[in-house]
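Rather than argue in generalities, we have chosen a single entry, letters for residues, whole numbers for local backbone shapes, without further comment.
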Amino acid sequence: QVQLVESGGGLVQPGGSLRLSCTASGFTFSKEPMAWFRQAPGTERELVARTNPSGGVSLYADSVKGRFTISRDNAKNTVYLQMNNLQPGDTAVYFCNALHTFYSTRVLGAWGQGTQVTVSS
């Protein structure tokens, strides 16, 4: 079955950076588009970045465009999210998942535990 393990979150000051990692198993990672989502308390889960199976094409939510970069290492079954110029509004639990198709919001597997990102001075 699909398993996803996110890591790399933490507490950071506004303007700071973090790099999240997500290691996947239970499916052919190199054949699936991958995405990062986030969920703040009391809000719906939001898709913030997605990348195609090769990693050559990525799309971002307007709220993170120009600040976040998604990448993947298919040899390591890992997808990353580099987050720069973090702001308090980025505070959330961050999750990764595989997408049914590149433009879909439907995910392939159960959610992992996520990784908490807190941006605060």
In short: The two ends are 40 Å apart (CA to CA). The chain has no helices and ten strands.
